Amino acid sequence: MREDRICCQLRIAASALRRYWKAGSSAVVASVLWAVPGGGGASEAVVPPPAIGLGKALTAEEIERYAITVFPDGRGLPQGRGTVEQGARLYQMQCAACHGARGIEGPASRLVGTDGFIGWSDPLRPLRVRKYPLQVFSVGAMWPHATTLFDYVRRGMPMHAPKSLTDEEVYAVTGYVLHLNGLVARQAVMDRETLPKVVMPGLARTVSAWPAER
Predict the structure, then answer these.
(1) How sure is the predictor about 10, in pLDDT bands with cuts at 50, 70 and 90?
(2) pLDDT tens, residue by residue, 75-110
(3) 3-state secondary structure at position 39
(4) 27 φ, ψ (degrees, to nearest 5)
(5) Burial class (CB in 10 A: 0-12, 13-18, 19+), 61
(6) Average pLDDT over residues 135-164
(7) Any residues with CB less than 8 A from the CB of 168 and at least 6 apart, and which?
(8) Does residue 141 surpass a pLDDT of 70?
(9) b/e per residue, 72-107, with b = 16+ CB within 10 A?
(10) Which helix (H) or strand (E) holds 82?
């Protein structure tokens, strides 16, 4: 019986060596010695988990640089502000080449308009949708939260230089796209207070997987 127990402990020790030999950690060696009778510990002891030694601890400043998620209720929005007027100029320089001067021409995803394949104000839309299916899901029709538009623009736009816009520029572009959809006025100013208050038409078509507690 004792021999069986020793063999089992040796198998555990060998397995630990195979899994963690690359780590080169003294804790691994200590674990193996602890498991083997006469190797520095009691034969009945349980092998403690070895220290893998991968990765490094991040500083608060490093975490803050990557913790940029903006939640639907506005949590995570940064300081700063941007106007629709500023956004109009930025849009023409940074966005129009992909989304069109009015946000409807493409070839990239449609930003302005209603959902569906047919729009009475856009008779040629079925032809564009057939070529670029993503145009069906316009910001004005399908996106449920204005804060998500800010988050997406800040993370991934413009496509050729993501994360190159300042927070103020992202506020401005977000405001202009909302204005193109008739959701904010030409004189609107977007910031962490005003942006979460914009009611998106897509919200009524959305079902949350995590409904708010009542």
Answers:
(1) low
(2) 999 999 999 999 999 999 999 999 999 998 878 888
(3) coil
(4) -65, -35
(5) exposed
(6) 89
(7) 80, 81, 82, 86
(8) yes
(9) bebeebeeebbbbebbbebbeebbeebbbeebbbbe
(10) strand 81-83
From residue 155, how far is each of 90, 127, 166 by CA, in Å?
A: 16, 30, 11
Largest CA distance in the chain: 85
Q: Please, what is the average pLDDT of the chain? A: 79
Q: What is the pLDDT of residues 63-78, one digit of tens each?
A: 888 889 999 999 999 9
Distance of CA 105 to the CA centre of its chain: 27
The two three-digit tokens of residue 197, written as one number: 């208050």
DSSP 38: T
Residues 46/13, Cβ–Cβ less than 8 Å: no
Measured distance CA(177)–CA(183) in Å, rounded = 9
- How crowded is the C-beta side of 82, counted as CA atoms within 13 Å? 27
DSSP state string for 134-167: GGGS-HHHH--BHHHHHHHHHHH-STTSTT-S-H
